[in-house]
Design goal:
The structure holds 2 protein chains of 2 kinds. Chain A is α/β, with parallel strands linked by helices. Chain A is 16% helix and 33% strand. Chain A has 2 domains: 114 residues, no CATH class; 314 residues, no CATH class. Chain A is elongated. In chain B, strand 6 and strand 7 form a beta hairpin. Chains A and B meet through helix 1 of A and helix 1, strand 6 and strand 7 of B.
Chain lengths: 468, 143
């Protein structure tokens, strides 16, 4: 009898132990499944925050540009609380300037971290992305965009073509109408964002762009003004930039032993904010072309007026490599900021331009030259080949979007009708775009982006970490 | 003792089911991630279609995938409806928010800020009781 009891007891203990082990395995299986679900939810929360930032990136209040690194009362984690309805769990997501999550992101810097915590039935996972260069450049989406800011309607024509041809191998978009004379407009893609829904025919699809899709977006595609761009890029107002800029750093070659180096060049004594041909009277000649040269190292230049005529004896050198200032390791662009709230006759560059990279390596780089045009002039900023009798190639991007109350900023390309094209190897975003004569936009896509550009949004750029 | 043994067997079976169901759900979402934000199917628009349409509209697009069936080992069955070997069914939906509906249609187009939410539910079969449900969010330029 005792033996039976003992055997039963031992067998029960063994079975009990097995049951405990099995139940433990069951719990672990659920824990693992919930943990996987929490990881997917946390990663989804990161994406949700990217979308949130991109919707609010140009909010006036920096605190609303992203989810803040503060903990709401009663919540276990910092940040904005959310969930995916119809699934299990909740997430909390926030941005910060540091990986530890202690310093709030200022809503401006391209260095930021996004951290998401997710809980699914008790399982917790944390995901973080971030680091430097989280912005995508505002110039990498469109070859040409007619913004049509500040006129209150979407019916005005904002891309105007005369009697010659405009070619663009990137996407061309507009918030307004498109007008063409007898010239043809050759686009790879077109994005119609004018709110009328049925104006695809505004884009004239001919030649190489035949049968390419015209995407119609019913709402306007907003772009921030140059004033907002200045704030985003330099954290300055126009007034501050007018008194604190890099104009005094404009250089020229030495009269003796000129080379494209620090020792072979000198500052040219530039003063004021009018950049015109007469300001080159103190400049010396390039050693190779023998042309009088004005050199712009990387920096932010402030001008109220730019009038650079075509002269066969003069040239502009954009020192994108920083060859005359000891290098440019941060790839800072050469930025022309133009601001004049008094009506003027327009601004233009017809003078030949080269870059130090082109001189030293034979290749041109479109990501290092930017013109931000905010002059209250209906004549706008133009690249003009009409007096050159030769094609003009510009490498860079132009941004001309007005403030409220100003005339719509305008960018003008003036080719001639003798096949001398005005060519922008880059991108163009302007309230209005006008083409006279033959013009071409060679859109380089992501190669146009500079990490110092104002952003069109935040995107995943590495720095993935996972905990839990 | 028989009761304890029976409980152990049931727990082992339950662990197996949760394990398989979790893997099916996770793998399905990973597949959607690989397929990519722009390549996921659109489905149809639900909500008020205003003209001109506006991204501020509260409507959304929903695509519901065909229910898939899996056997006891988690292998996908090449069948359109459950059979005697079926042990799991999987349904997925892709819901797209901040989209632009097309007038007089249930079609829509995406914008730069469209958010695509994936939901996957795995049920036990034939009881059709829910075992696991998982979700994920995809955006342009995201993870």
């Amino acid at each position: 009898m005792l033996a039976v009891v003992a055997i039963t007891l031992v067998a029960s203990m063994v079975l009990g132990a097995i049951l405990l082990n099995v139940r433990n395995q069951y719990t672990l299986t659920w824990a693992r499944t919930n943990s996987e679900a929490a990881l997917l939810l946390a990663e989804g929360a990161i994406n949700d925050e990217i979308s949130y930032i991109n919707l609010h990136l140009y909010d006036a209040n920096a605190n609303t540009r992203s989810s803040q690194n503060t903990t709401a009362s009663g919540e276990p984690f910092k940040g904005r609380k959310g969930s995916i309805s119809g699934t299990d769990g909740q997430f909390w997501v926030f941005t910060s300037a540091d990986a530890a999550g202690n310093t709030a992101w200022d809503g401006n810097s391209s260095t930021l971290y996004i951290t998401a915590n997710a809980r699914v039935n008790g399982a917790w996972r944390q995901v973080q992305i971030g680091g430097p260069n989280m912005y995508s450049s505002i110039f990498t989406n469109y070859g040409v965009f007619g913004v049509n800011n500040n006129n209150g309607t979407n019916t005005s024509n904002v891309i105007l073509n005369g009697n010659a041809n405009l070619h663009c191998n990137g996407t061309v978009g507009t918030n307004g109408g498109v007008s063409t004379g007898t010239g043809q407009m050759h686009f790879e893609h077109a994005s119609n964002c004018n709110g009328n829904g049925n104006n695809q025919t505004k884009f004239v699809a001919k030649g190489t762009c035949a049968n390419k899709p015209v995407v119609t977006q019913a709402t306007s595609r907003p772009f921030p003004s140059c004033t907002e761009m200045l704030k985003k890029s330099c954290n300055k107002t126009w007034s501050q930039l007018s008194s604190s800029n890099d104009n005094s750093k404009i250089r020229t070659f030495n009269s003796s032993n000129p080379t494209l180096t620090s020792s072979g060049t000198k500052t040219c004594g530039f003063t004021g904010s009018n950049l015109n041909t007469s300001k080159m009277s103190n400049c010396n000649k390039s050693p190779d072309t023998k042309k009088t040269a004005m050199i712009f190292p990387p920096g932010d230049y402030y001008f109220t007026n730019v009038e650079l005529d075509y002269m066969s004896t003069h040239e502009i050198i954009l020192d994108d490599q920083g060859a005359t200032v000891g290098g440019n390791p941060d790839e800072k662009p050469i930025r022309f900021w133009l601001r004049n709230t008094s009506y003027n006759d327009g601004d233009y560059i017809s003078m030949p331009m080269r870059s130090s990279k082109e001189i030293n390596t034979g290749t041109c780089d479109p990501k290092n030259f930017r013109i931000f045009y905010s002059n209250d002039s209906s004549n706008g900023f133009r690249f003009d080949v009409s007096n050159r009798k030769a094609p003009m190639n510009v490498y860079g991007a132009v941004y001309a979007v007005s403030d409220s109350g100003m005339s719509r900023c305008r960018a003008v390309f003036v080719g001639d009708e003798d096949s001398n094209e005005c060519v922008l190897n880059g991108g163009l975003i302007a309230d209005r775009v006008s083409i006279y004569g033959n013009a071409r936009i060679n859109f380089p896509g992501n190669n146009l982006g500079n990490k110092n550009d104002p952003p069109s949004g935040v995107q995943y750029n590495g720095g993935y970490k996972c905990r839990g | 003792m028989f009761g304890i043994w029976n409980m152990s067997v049931n727990s082992i079976q339950n662990s197996h089911e949760v394990n398989i169901a979790g893997e099916l759900a996770r793998a399905d979402i990973e597949t959607a991630k690989i397929q990519g934000y722009t390549n996921l199917p659109y489905g149809t628009y639900t909500g008020t279609v205003i003209y001109p349409p506006d991204t501020a509209a509260t409507g959304y697009g929903t695509w519901t995938g065909t229910t898939e069936f899996y056997d006891a080992t988690g292998a996908k069955q090449a069948i359109g409806s459950a059979n005697s070997a079926t042990r799991y069914s999987l349904t997925r939906t892709v819901t797209s928010y901040r989209v632009l509906p097309v007038q007089n249609s249930t079609a829509f187009s995406m914008t730069d800020n469209t958010v695509r939410v994936i939901r996957v539910i795995v049920n036990e079969y034939p009881a059709n009781t829910q075992l696991v449900r998982m979700g994920h969010i995809l955006v342009k330029g995201g993870l």
